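queue> pop job 88
queue> type: inverse folding (structure -> sequence)
queue> payload:
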């Protein structure tokens, strides 16, 4: 399960591990398993962990 955090639009989405929208490597503005510039993609164990992380992250970043 991936949590995609996009700070400029304040949008957060979840993706399954096999989703084709998940990049294989970091980009200039978004990182895997970290937040920089425009946000990032966090790999999590399951949907419950993703929702918990979303709650924590949105309070501090978005």
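queue> result:
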């Amino acid at each position: 399960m991936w949590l995609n955090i996009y700070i400029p639009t304040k949008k957060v989405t979840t993706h399954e591990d096999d989703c084709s929208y998940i990049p294989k490597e970091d980009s200039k503005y978004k990182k895997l398993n970290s937040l920089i510039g425009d946000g990032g993609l966090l790999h999590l164990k399951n949907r419950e962990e993703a929702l918990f992380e979303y709650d924590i992250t949105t309070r501090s970043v978005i």
